[in-house]
Automatic annotation (TrEMBL):
Species name: Sphingomonas humi
SUPFAM superfamilies reported for this sequence: NAD(P)-linked oxidoreductase
Domain NADP-dependent oxidoreductase: 24-287
InterPro entries to which the protein is assigned, alphabetical: AKR, AKR_Detox_Biosynth, NAD(P)_OxRdtase_dom_sf, NADP_OxRdtase_dom
Alphabetical list of Pfam families matching this protein: Aldo_ket_red (PF00248)
The protein, known as: Aldo/keto reductase
Length: 299
């Protein structure tokens, strides 16, 4: 009944030859408040082994202001405690430029990367991801701009977020280094990438899948539709004490080595979620969740 190993038994890297990362990450799209509050969250993540910290320049933007606020708040934490920087694998994203909405022109990418580093109060990040694809940007120009940032030591690895399979292929064709990550929305309620080729591509190319909104935007914890309730029931059958732990561990059981990004801004929830690293699944249990999410039996 335990033929799928828990995530704690896996050694994951950021791309084919990148730094080692934990199978679970913490994200800062809702990070706000005082430096003391932010520092407690950072410490909790790191102390529980979650060393990949994910942010973006758009995090903090409320539609009219706040662009860069989450990065700036993390920068305050790092400035106050410089020793924390060496304990983390730091990732940020850019390319969303309200109200355009997207800009991956070489000039803007260079500007966005420099601005993020300034707000984060660091001279480099281990991972920089194109946040959403700019349809008007040629992938050759985007690739050249990103590789210039790598050559300058500003970013260690390049990744993408919310890219389709063909968009990933197009960008990779113009890069001299392999893409390290892809960051789609994945949860037991959003299973598209299991069947549309995204995860197959990630495994073939050695990209690490980073899953945003792994709890379905909170719908798993407060299910309303019949489908949501069916998925919740299947998860509860494996780990009734904490459905979010079951959901996270379900994603981590996939052979692509999915790294869910926790969105919680509560220290106790970060600590509790780390228990997902030890949950064991068998194939019957795992497929029961998938069938519930599909709403029909597998062929």
């Amino acid at each position: 009944m335990s033929d799928l190993p828990p995530a704690s038994e896996r050694t994951l890297t950021l791309g084919p030859d990148g730094p080692a990362i934990a199978p679970l990450s913490w994200g800062m799209w809702r990070l706000a408040g005082t430096r003391e509050v932010a520092a407690r969250l950072v410490h909790t993540a790191l102390d529980n082994g979650l060393n990949l910290l994910d942010t973006a320049d758009i995090y903090g933007f409320d539609g009219s202001g706040g662009f860069g606020d989450a990065e700036a708040l993390l920068g305050e934490v790092l400035a106050a405690e410089p020793g924390l920087r060496g304990r983390m694998v730091l990732a940020t994203k850019g390319g969303i430029r309200p109200p355009l909405p997207y800009d991956q022109s070489p000039a803007y990418l260079a500007e966005a990367i420099d601005a993020s580093l300034s707000r984060l109060r660091t001279d480099h990040v281990e991972l920089w991801q194109v946040h959403r694809p700019d349809i008007l940007a040629h992938p050759q120009e985007t690739a050249a701009a990103l590789e210039q940032a790598v050559a300058a030591g500003k970013i260690g690895r390049i990744g993408v977020s919310n890219f389709t399979v063909p968009q990933v292929e197009a960008l990779q064709a113009f890069l001299s280094q392999p893409l390290a990550t892809t960051q789609p929305e994945i949860s037991p309620l959003r299973i598209t990438c299991f069947e549309n080729g995204e995860l197959d591509q990630a495994m073939r190319m050695g990209m690490r899948p980073l899953a945003w909104s792994p709890l379905g935007g909170g719908r798993l914890l407060s299910p309303e539709s019949e489908r949501d309730k069916a998925v919740a029931h299947a998860l509860d059958a494996v780990h009734s004490a904490d459905r979010s732990v079951a959901a996270l561990s379900w994603l981590m059981a996939h052979p692509a080595g999915i790294v869910p990004i926790l969105g919680t801004q509560k220290a106790e929830r970060i600590a509790a979620a780390a228990k997902a690293l030890e949950v064991r699944w068998n194939r019957e249990q795992w497929y029961a969740v998938l069938v519930a999410a599909r709403g029909e039996q597998l062929p």
